[in-house]
Design goal:
Blueprint lengths: L10 E5 L4 H13 L5 E5 L6 H10 L3 E5 L5 H13 L4 E6 L20 H22 L9 E6 L15 H24 L3 E7 L2 E2 L16 E2 L1 H14 L8 E3 L8
């Protein structure tokens, strides 16, 4: 009698996993979910020592793909590879985000607005998540809960904005929130068990936040591992009533 092959458990996919919160999420999932495959994507996996180390430690449980979420052709290629492997996904987290680099700084006033910087911020912080989901959503579980999380930021809240400034980052995260909300409504029509949320991870000690940490109490700055554990704890408690919500790292709801 030929034994039936045991079905593979659905995967968790972390998009933007080369460093920071994304890498920490991959690490936590591998450490604490022994039978779950994890898929990590980022623009250049070969440049991530963290991913290389995890691949050495966990072998075939971790699959790594090159995905530039700002290029739709890149997302299509990853989807084609996942199709060949009969992949199913129960958790998809988009971690890609940008606040600054050598030629881009958060605006302090309207005179600082630069069209190229605005386009880059929207492309990375808003559009990239939708392009990835567009081609990866077909792998989401249909007969049980599937979760999509787009990492947002509290400064993307319109009603919570009392300080001004940071025009591009604030507005690109607000756009991500609206895109997430709209997606959550569509998914309910054909994936009624799915939950789609925008999630604020708090202030995390990453390259994104480091230039702006001086005014923040040290106890309110999370390590990437702490942030990853808090995010996964929130995810574990999500249910249908949370679909389309904007949620903080502690599970509280954030006003739009």
């Amino acid at each position: 009698m030929k034994l039936k092959k045991r079905p593979t458990k659905a995967s968790a996919l972390i998009q933007g996993a080369s460093r920071g919160i994304g890498l920490a999420l991959v690490d936590e999932l591998l450490k604490n979910n022994a039978d779950q495959p994890v898929i990590a994507t980022c623009r250049n996996p070969n440049s991530s020592d963290g991913l290389k180390s995890l691949m050495e430690n966990y072998g075939e449980r971790l699959k790594v793909f090159s995905l530039d979420p700002t290029e739709e052709s890149s997302a299509i290629k990853v989807a084609e590879m996942l199709s060949k492997q009969s992949t199913s996904i129960e958790l998809l987290v988009n971690c890609t985000g940008i606040l600054h680099h050598s030629k881009l700084r958060p605006e302090k006033r309207i005179d600082d607005i630069n069209i190229e910087n605005l386009i880059e911020l929207f492309k990375v912080n808003s559009i990239s998540a939708m392009l990835a989901i567009k081609h990866l959503r077909k792998f989401l579980l249909r007969d049980s809960r599937a979760v999509i999380v787009n990492l947002s930021a509290r400064v993307g809240s319109i009603s919570d904005n009392f300080l001004g400034g940071w025009y591009g980052y604030r507005s690109s995260k607000a756009a991500l929130n609206q895109l997430t909300r709209t997606l959550s409504i569509e998914l309910q029509r054909n994936l009624p068990l799915s939950v789609c949320v925008a999630l604020h991870p708090g202030t995390v000690d990453t390259q994104l936040s480091q230039p702006f940490q001086s005014a923040i109490p040290k106890e309110k700055i999370f390590t990437t591992q702490t942030a990853a554990r808090q995010i996964l704890n929130v995810i574990s408690k999500l249910n249908s009533t949370d679909n389309g919500s904007f949620i903080a790292w502690d599970g509280s709801k954030i006003p739009w």
